[in-house]
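Two quick folds needed for the group meeting slides. Do the first one here.
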Amino acid sequence: MINLGLQVRRAVERDYDRIANLVYYESNSHRHLDWHSPLEWIGSSHYWVCEENGALAAALACPEDPPHVAWIRFFGHNYHLSASQAWTLLWSAAHSEIAAENKRTYIAAIAVKRWFQSLLYESGFELKQNIVLLEWKNPSRSLFAMPSGIRIRPMQDADLPAVANVDLSAFGLFWHNTESALQKARQQCASATVAEDDSGVIGYQLSSKNPLGAHLARLAVKPEVQGRGVGMALVNQLLQSLNLNLSGRLSVNTQADNAASLSLYKKMGFVLTGESFPVFVFQVGG
């Protein structure tokens, strides 16, 4: 039965407080794990809300960042509306709008909650890969030597264009952190450093602190200099700066099928925790 009191429209600035209630007070929500609050995307493309008799009942945000990749940053609904009903209405609007742009776009989600995974499967999303979590378990191990000709220093605003290029070359378009995303991350993280040689910036890391220790949120090295110990040197400096070499937990996540990344972390003393998170993708356009 169709509920004639339901209407879907674009999210606008005046929706801020009502979307905030969905984000912070409703348990029926999916939130993308990144440096942005779902509220920061209000006003961007592909942000929709559903109203029930004039009251905001659900919201879906999937803005493109990086280009051609629209991560589902937020989906939430209040208890008056079922997850299936809210998703069907909002997903139909988002899908139609993105399809009308006549370009190839990947709509993606890291879906932790089972109910959201079910909605994605039912809508034709496919499992792309899994994200696995690792933890540093070898505090007695010798720290890693600095490669010759490599310098590590704090990241500056002026480094962001070069850091974004390193990120794109290391991870490709799908997982790319754009310059604006990196700037946001740098403002919030506990540690942000770059590795450079005479050619300029060749690697970087971003890490956040938590009550148990720290999380290595991003580690990237230019492909042409991988294997020289740059990644190890960045992690070594992080361990020293955060005083994690003798105590404390350092975690990191990577794609389950990224053999090079898993090999590097294993060499540094990281071990798999057994936790994993599925990545779902829906392709629109050619």
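Then this one, please, same format:
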Amino acid sequence: MDAPPQHEDCRPFVKVATLMSEAGLNVPRVLAQDLDRGFLLLTDLGSETYLQVLERERSLAPGLFDAATTALVSWQAASRADVLPPYDEALLRRELGLFPEWYLGRHLGLELSSDARDRLERFQSALLGNILGQQKVFVHRDFMPRNLMLSEPNPGILDFQDAVYGPVSYDVASLFRDAFISWEEPEVLDGTIRYWEKARRAGLPVPPDFGDFYRDVEWMGLQRHLKVLGIFARLSYRDGKKGYLEDTPRFLRYARSTAQRYRELSGLLPFLDAADEVAPVTGLTF
């Protein structure tokens, strides 16, 4: 790994790699390090991601996701407070703010009226009320097929340097409501139930009623999807990485499905309607 210190700090990577290894997960092992110059010598986890495998052969999904959720339960079972940064309200709100700033504002060219901002704030407060009330565990924060490697033992896990201590539903939402591959709801339900059963057996702090847990996963996923819509727009307009916007229809579908299912979240729907109906322009007031 070559991570110039003026751009990236390798210390969180080393710290989380140690935590995950201690929890029995398959992560790159640090063989040597020069943190002052941003160099790490790491073991290799192979050449194929879960995403590449699943794009080629979807029938392998049950086995791959079974291994992934087993690893996730082991990671969460190792959780301790005050070890990783908290996934607190300030961070969650900053992430949610990417949606109106970069997707609605920069991509669609919408200027939100004070009334629209008030409606968006009411929606965000309802969403965050649920998320902040969830039990907390170690959170990978990007636990999805693109960051899981086909390896032995399976999976190899990458891109964990931003790990935090936060909602128990977060990594499950990341895994089954993915940024780059879509699954039908019966498949999402099946995978989520299987995770929940493992988590219950391991004594993790998931709700005793699966319906409550699935609601938590959907609400947590909605926060993530709105964040990603903003991030993908920012990658396009600020960083010149245009391909990311091609994946935004998937997130709009995710968001609409959840907002339609729960009355408390219906305040988001007018903003999603605008996203569906307005071509990228500038200067429109919503």
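Slide caption for protein two: The longest helix spans residues 210-237.
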